[in-house]
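Good morning C.,

I know you're traveling, so I'll keep this short. The sequence:
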Amino acid sequence: MQRPSWDQYFMDITRLVATRSTCLRRQVGAIMVKERNILATGYNGVPSGISHCDAVGCLRERLKVPSGERHELCRGLHAEQNSIIQAARHGINIDGSTLYCTTMPCIICTKMLINAGIKTVIYAEGYPDESAREMISESGITVIHFTPGNDGLSS
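The tokens, ready to paste straight into the viewer:
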């Protein structure tokens, strides 16, 4: 029997986490992993207790704001932010962990990941934010673009 590699396994879970998102534009999931253990999860969405975008609409959509711009207009938090917050709320140390994310982090999330001590980011889809790519490259965080089937299988 062949089993998925660890990267495939964690990326599959990340995609499942993304299904909780109520964002009208993009469903993103993120998980923090250390020593093959999931520490925290997050998906993009509004803060707890706030009306979801699927109920009240999307200001960024109404204003036709392109992806990767004007993050402050969004009611929601990004998946990476929510995974960091979840870890903090539960007292979980994410220093030195790996972030698996369905989408490459934006500049805001990149800054948070750097200061949180994340060592590796493994993402499935790109994101149009050149500043984030430049900063994460300068930070020394290892960045890996995950492509299914290219990561091998483990038995």
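Safe travels,
E.
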